[in-house]
Amino acid sequence: MLLVLAGLLVAALALLPFGYVVVYAATLSPQDAWDLVVRPRVGELATNTLALMGGVLAVTGLLGLGCAWLVERTDLPLRTLWHVLLAAPLAVPAFVNSYGWVSLTHDVQSYRGAVLIVSMSYFPLVYLPIVAALRMLDPAHEEVARSLGYGSAATFRRVLLPGVRPALLGGALLVALHCLAEFGALQMLAYPTFTTAIFDQYASAFSSAGANVLACLLGLACLLLVLLELRLRGGRALARVGEGARRPVERVRLGLWRLPALAALTGLITLALGVPIGSLVHWLVVGSSTEFPVGDLVSAAVSTVSLAAAAAGVATAMALPVAWLAVRYRGAASNVVERTTFMAHALPGIVVGLALVTISIRYAQPIYQTVPVLLAAYAILFLPRSVVSIRASLEHAPPVLDEVARSLGLGRLKAAWRVTVPLIQPGLGAGAALVFLSVSTELTATLMLAPLGTNTLAMEFWSNSSSVKYGAAAPYALLLVLLSLPATWLLATRATGGGSRWLQ
Amino acid sequence: MAAVTMTGITKSYGAQRVLTGIDLTVADGELVALLGPSGCGKTTLLRIIAGFAAPDEGTLTVGDDELVGARGSVPAERRRIGYVPQEGALFPHLPVRGNILFGLPRRERTADRLAEMMELAELPAHLAASYPHQLSGGQQHRVALARALAPRPRVILLDEPFAALDAALRESAGREVTRLLRAAGTTAVLVTHDQSEALSLADRVAVLRHGRLAQVADPVGLYTAPADVDIASFVGGASVLPASLQNGSAQCVLGDLRVENPGPTGEGRVLVRPEQVHLRPAAAGAKDAVGVVTEVRYFGHGAQVRVELPGTTPLLVARVAGAELPAVGDKVYVEVQGPVRAYPGEAPA
Fold it and tell me: What three-state secondary structure class fits B5?
């Protein structure tokens, strides 16, 4: 069947980097592998990476849980504003955040600085799912716990915490994957991890054995995290059982704690948004007096937008058969196809980039550093965003409508085109928009795979800021933040239960 | 317009047999109801006629065209068989106009055709631009029918079309559908689990049980002469009492009853319909009273009363007028009016 064939093709493309990691690891002789892996340098990188991950997980977990509780379960003033502000750091790419801090003070180029900056960039990834989970939890459970004699703290521990645990774990695993994949921010902070080390090796020797072994280790670590997530997620019941309108929550009165809570949130937002934005504005003002290359800015913006639009088109076209299979033809094959695309998503941009570099150099020299390879990397990296979007809206489009269309004389393809595709348009659009925006701020794979002479906003920003031209980098950073805003808004509303217009 | 003929339709899902050897003919212009409890295979049969599922064995012809047979299966979109699923399933992204004209080729999607169909379905013209979520349940229903009828199908299939409507709307929607189908002269198959719907709307009723056709008859025939006691209790809500049958009479807990079909003799069962049972109140101490009222369900125009009879016999169901309601615990005399229907064989223990 055509659909299955399309799905398998997509899965095969998504598997390329994985295949590369596995095949490469398998072809190393045990002795070589041992020599390459067991080195002081690898140990140092592993310690660095794990220490960073541990610190960031602790900070983001506490922040996410605390902020979500304050916003969803207490009488905190201006809750809607806080909610927006707490999701907003996602709109500042981590490497822009890092630039904001480093250009102010070099004191952040340390372990603590790295934990601080990475945490400030990624805590919304924990905050948003917990908010969504808290909104789904039936407040009646908390009331029942109260009526059974539990106090606030005990209710929080015994009822609320188990209820949001899947969301907390899911968010934490996402943060862990981001820690493993983060390149720009850590490079700027001079904090070496696997990812930055791979990039350095690549920059000096392209596809060297050293870079490839590190990429294998990194890829395996990510795979491990994803498998862990699948295990944790499987077989969990929904947060709320049963239908019916849900009553609003009785909020905890903060009383005297109101001021300290407000102060803490203000401090957090200052660190996460105030510093990077403030520093960006500072450099914009300082920099514009020295140089404001409108021509370069426009050409970078044009190439960014055209690459991102092309990638969004490719990813949507690839995601449609995957989502269609997963929703309309549930079964072993469609499961495999869908899972595969998600597995590939777990691989950091650096591994996908290196894999495609190696494969194209060895087997397809003519397309090395061409636009199709770059688009393939984007598609592999961001396919799941599109799949998730399309899938969600497809699940609400009843197959009976297709059957009615066929009984009215339309063939399968025509029925899909005239009935289901219009119905899932919001999902298609949202998925394409997410891919578009993710691609426009992507740095790592772009640096590795962009054709010579192509300069995107992220690349221009990177080359300016790494040669310490902070003022020249500022306009690019501003454009990157502006481009990220709509995607952040989409993610934030999706996480907290937005729906499509037709399918309420 | 065409007759539908099914022969030997058999279908399994994995190891589970859903339909076994279905032979059924629906005459040109006739409305046949497929009646049965959920899980009896009636929806599967409908989907086979529509072309959404293929039978393992058997043939299906509509008019002179063999749709399923030795030469394979004609796809749903080329069968010219209209389909109205549960709740209508209007396309939510299209207005009424777009829904009704959906199945027509582009050049036939004219204002005239739209007006014609809306008039047929008695839909006010100003609704043409409304979206499905702005319509009432009954209006959605009529749009769904108009949509199915617009391409002039040979047969219309209705899958539990009234299940989602409330009781008041159900009856009028049912009348409306039969009127529309008669006006269009279309052959129709209606799937339902509601016996009163089947009896009141259809020309003939086909009772499906465990994937087999148990009986096909017109409504009067089905109600008055059910093929066996199971159909009798499913279709009419009748009570079944053990009896000894002899020479056209039945000896049972209610005394000697006259039998309308004097065939069977020996141990058997008789069918007592609720409307045959008349209850008379007995004094509290009356020794000769035979029954005690155990349940009264009041419907306004009357009530359904369950009466416990001596021995281990099943409860007797009676229909009484609203004015003469007994109370739970009352002792009553029971009288059966008219002949009862007899079936040979003992009740399963």
Answer: strand
Choose between B61 and A284: higher pLDDT.
B61
B159: left (phi over 0), alpha (psi -120 to 50) or beta: beta
Cβ-Cβ contacts under 8 Å, B153 against chain A: 407
pLDDT band at A101 (very low <50, low <70, confident <90, very high): very high
Per-residue pLDDT reduced to its tens digit, B130-149: 998 889 888 888 899 899 99
**pLDDT at residue A244 greater than cutoff 50:** no
**Average pLDDT, integer, range A267-276:** 93
Q: Which of B77, B89, B91 sits opposite A409 (nearest CB)?
A: B77
Output B264 or B267, whichever has higher pLDDT. Answer: B267
Q: What are the tokens at B20?
A: 């076994």
Q: Name B306's bridge partners.
A: B295, B317
Exposed/middle/buried for residue A320 (C-beta within 10 Å: 0-12, 13-18, 19+): buried
Query: Residues A432-485: pLDDT tens digits?
Result: 888 888 898 899 899 888 888 888 999 989 988 888 788 888 888 888 888 888
Mean pLDDT across B279-308: 82
Question: How far separated are the first and last CA of chain A, in Å rounded?
Answer: 32
Percent of chain A with pLDDT over 90: 23
Contacts 24+ apart (CB under 8 A), A331-335: A333/A4, A333/A7, A334/A4, A334/A7
Give the DSSP H or E segment for B23.
Answer: strand B16-26
| Residue B249 distance to chain A (closest CA, Å) | 53
All structural domains of chain B, each given as residue ranges with its CATH number in brackets, are 4-224 (3.40.50.300), 237-344 (2.40.50.140)
Q: Which two tokens stand for residue A500?
A: 């499509």
Strand order across the B4-13 sheet: B16-26, B4-13, B57-62, B65-69, B72-73
The pLDDT of residue B322: 73
B31 touches chain A (CB under 8 A): no
Q: What does the DSSP 8-state code read for residue B127?
A: G
User: How many A-B residue pairs are in contact by the CB < 8 A criterion?
Assistant: 64
DSSP string, B40-63: SSHHHHHHHHHTSS--SEEEEEET
User: Distance (Å, rounded) from C-alpha A25 to C-alpha A19?
Assistant: 10
CA contacts within 13 A on the Cβ side of B19: 29
What is the number of other CB atoms lying within 10 angstroms of the CB of residue B133? 10
Interface test with A, best of B91, B157, B189 (most A CBs within 10 A): B91
- Is there a contact between A217 and A41 (Cβ–Cβ < 8 Å)? no
Beta pairing, strands B31-35 & B57-62: unpaired
pLDDT at B229: 85
CB distance B161 to B194 below 8 Å: no
Pairing of strands B65-69, B72-73: antiparallel
A499 and chain B in contact, CB less than 8 A: no
pTM over 0.80: no
Listed in sequence order, the residues at least 6 apart from B233 whose beta carbon sits closer than 8 Å to its beta carbon are: B239, B240
Evaluate the CA torsion angle B321, B326, B327, B331 in order and state its sign: negative
pLDDT digit string (tens) for A414-424? 998 999 988 88
